[in-house]
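Give me the fold.
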Amino acid sequence: MLRMSLGLVFIWFGALKFTNATPVAELVANTLPFLPGDQFVPALGLFEFVLGVALIIGRWTGLVVLLMIGHLAGTFLVLVTQPEVAFLGGNPLVLTMTGEFVVKNLILIAAGLVLVTPRPNRTSGGAAERLDADREPDPVEASQHRAAAR
């Protein structure tokens, strides 16, 4: 579900940028003012859209997440290049709505890391095994196990 929801968000946000329907076009363009915003914003949207589709397909997840994290890390440039729109009164502890919009990407990065973190298999001390070890043994099951061991 996490991979699918991330994919949907990237498709949605990417499509908004690609179709020039995003409310953050000016923010994105002003973050890298040396790039032509009228080309960069739609290109970024296409990149996000492709990332979203790739997340939903679920192939090459490691590479896709690496690209996603790189992209999301780039969003923090707003805090450096446009601190006046990210921080209220120049105070780095008080975020504006734009600042909150950028900082929430920490959650998306963490979600990406969860996607590529190996999961323990069920036979090596997973949660189900730990719960099973805590229950009282069933007398019938125990006697069947003893009989099978003989």
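The chain has a mean pLDDT of 89.
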